[in-house]
Amino acid sequence: MAVDGLDFYEAIGVHQRWKNRLKAAVTGQSGEHLDADTVARADACALGVWLGQLPPHAAIPADLLDALRAEHAEFHHLAAQVIRLADAGQTEQALQALRTDAPYSRASHRVTKLLSRLYLELTARQNAPSR
């Protein structure tokens, strides 16, 4: 469902699927070449573009927005680290970086959790009765 120009379900799904994309690339089970410098850019995906286009006075709690921007940037940074490890031939270290208890997985979880919170916040505001 799109709210304020972002399909939150799609954004959450895309970020959740990154772990599988990374694992497939690391293990050689993907024909896709992931460029670490491109993946590191938090402003290059749909969520990053949306975050960059929000007006400064957007009706979103600043602390929630700041947390999402920071976690999203960290997510991309850590995903790029996984690719760099794989590119350096450090396959085992790259796979370790994708473990559930590793920083990448925790950052991914925080991004999806913050997206869910933001979605709930925005839909509550949209559905609130006008005064």
How does this model look, in words?
This protein has 131 residues and is mainly alpha-helical. Helix content is 67%, strand content 3%. The protein has helices spanning 8-26, 36-39, 46-53, 62-87, 91-96, 103-127; strands spanning 2-3, 6-7. A hairpin with a 2-residue loop joins strand 1 and strand 2. The model has no long low-confidence stretch (mean pLDDT 90).
Helix and strand layout, with pairings?
Layout: E1 2-3, E2 6-7, H1 8-26, H2 36-39, H3 46-53, H4 62-87, H5 91-96, H6 103-127
Antiparallel strand pairs: 1-2
Helix pairs in contact: 1-4, 1-6, 4-6
Q: What is the terminal-to-terminal distance?
A: 26 Å
Give the topology string: H per helix, E per strand.
Answer: EEHHHHHH
Radius of gyration over C-alpha positions, nearest whole angstrom = 16 Å
Task: Extract low-pLDDT stretches.
Answer: none
Strand percentage: under 5%
| Shape descriptor | elongated
Nearest-integer average pLDDT: 90
**Share of helical residues:** 55-70%
Instruction: Give the structural class.
Output: mainly alpha
Biggest beta sheet attributes = 2 strands, antiparallel
- Strand count: 2
Across the major sheet, the strand order is: 1-2
Please count the helical segments.
6
